[in-house]
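Task card 7
Instruction: Convert sequence to structure tokens.
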Amino acid sequence: MNEKEYAPPINRLELDTAATMFPLAFCKKHKSLIRLTVTMSDPIDRNSLQSALDRLMPRFPSFYVRLSHNRFRYFFESLDYTPVILEEARANDPLFMTLDELYTCAFRVVVAENRIALEYSHAVSDGYGGSVFLKSLIAEYLNIRYSVSGFPGVLCVKEASTYDEIKDEYPKIAGVANKLKDFPSAYSLKGTPDEKLHITELTFKTEALLNCASEHGVTLTAFLSGILVAALTDVRWYKNKKQQEVRLSIPIDLRRRFSSCTLRNFTVPITIYAGNVSEKTDISALCQSIHKQLKRSTNKENLSAMVAMYVKMAKSRVISAMPLSLKRWGVQTFFSLRKVESCMTFSNLGIWRLPDEMEPYVKQSGMMFSPKPSSPYSCGVVSVGNTLTLTLTRSIKEPLLEQRVLRILENTIYKKNIRLESV
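Output:
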């Protein structure tokens, strides 16, 4: 099809290759939900935001959906209504959407004073796709509320959705699958399970952290990964679990590497290994080791091989022929019994670039996603302008990482004689 050909209205949308697993694994402890937040300069006018959400519906057909299923598989059905904006007091705790709610609508928008939160199933999209949707929602809101318009780089509600935006891009880039290596279980943080999620936001000057990463000769993702690995290692020493390896799972956005503009899932997770870290290990050496691993693991050949495993499983005729109830039981049993592959997931959405006309209205942005049963912590990072927000989310009562991350980060920066100013 022509790259610029517009997509006609759809009533049913098949899940993309990565998304097929999320509804099957969905349970109380494994929800696969993402929440993006934006803090505005002024209090939110709910009516204007609701109007913006109504207008956006034709532009994002892959978002305005609800989860549905037949006997053999899950799929999306298009909504014939616009979801209602929720107030923070009326919504459940963040990342606590239920499967029944996803059958009604696979996303929700929540407002509280000057903050807008977009929460959605990972089956709908990844962090990048959600950020594109949220940016367009804010642009339309500003147009309605303040008569501000003309935002370059933001998807316009007056244009129709294109085929490229709703494509499942995984099959196109799948290479030759590599044989999976069998590693021992990674170190797993232990604590008292808590039904309430605990969320800690740390905000810093983006420029200061970029300068510090540059001093170590690494990217910001590698630098922050090093900080998290050092904090996790500190907990492991304290718990006397020296034989278990510290690993991070980092989702890699495939769009830039494979030239895609899909708004659906298009990431693949890679695993970063801490190696032999001791109390005498220099943080710079740790960050550089992670930097090299990221560079080696994210070449096109390796990424295509990892994608091939997803595609092979999704296209399996044996799995496709299984009843949905059996698939759900099999997937949830697999996740409950498999080895701990990583200590936590760390995702850096990068710099959320806004048009100059939009910047005065947006102060801060954040990202969080539901922790997994075997890794009760997750970490998301987003930068807007010169403000970087690092969000730690945990599903246990004990705060094992928060103070350690902050202490190691500050010590690392001071050793480099770079002063970090909190926002």
